[in-house]
Amino acid sequence: MAPDVHRPVTKPCSKTAMANMTMPDSENQIEAGARRFRTLFISDVHLGTKGCQAPMLLDFLARHDADTIYLIGDIVDGWRLKQGWYWPQAHNDVVQKLLRKARKGARVIYVPGNHDEFLRDYVGMHFGGVEVMETAIHEAADGRKYLIMHGDVFDTVIRHARWLALLGDWAYGTALFVSTWLNLVRRRLGFTYWSLSAWAKYKVKNAVNFIGRFEEVLVAEARRQGVDGVVCGHIHSAANRMMGGIVYVNTGDWVESCTAVVEHEDGRLEVIDWGGRARAAGRPHGELPGERGWPQAA
Length: 298
Fold this sequence. Notes:
This protein is α/β, with parallel strands linked by helices. It has one domain (35-280): Purple Acid Phosphatase, chain A, domain 2 (4-Layer Sandwich). 37% of the residues lie in helices and 20% in strands. The chain contains ten helices and 13 strands. It has a seven-stranded mixed beta sheet. The termini are far apart.
């Protein structure tokens, strides 16, 4: 399916939509002073899992706004929800927050990944102001064009050995569980947050090689389609760098790193490490926003 080319558009917010907004006063105050960008890119939220850092994402969304918002796959974790229903209020709040931004005029584009692949049956449709696309081409303010895709279609394990992908998903979830308890002990001993799964990802040779191959394949696909860069997700490893004349950007995730990518008004792309700011402020992952010391928008 050919990617869609678009430029961000802003629609007026209707009185009906405004009437439906029931945010607390504190949240209204935050959103009124939120940093505004041309485009916001988010992926790998994994709503429906215990590892999802929904409170962190809610705080980020309250403090950052954009004309266009790309949801680049694995926003909802259909794999995990099939095994058992887990949907706390914070996860529902994330969905409502995104729908509210659409009602207020943002163009919200959902590009499904492997964990929310069920949405690929609805490509071309709109839900509550959210457009579902297989892939897209985003034209930045500086004229550069970026291929927008989750990236799982280039993961040979996902495509040809689904059972192995499910096993890897279980192993990743187990690592997150161990990390949670390990970091409870570290906090009591006065140590900072440390990610077991991130350590394993960067220390195990095969994992490092997989990330390198994934990046190279995505860059090659962008070059084949004649664009200037690619913005993707899937591997939970945020990046923004030039590779062989092609800009490679990965949005990271909202399970551990809590990162997103923004486009400034001049077309410049930037990775925002919201999780890093929280750790620098002494707030562990998953702690509710709004407390004294929580990271403010820069």
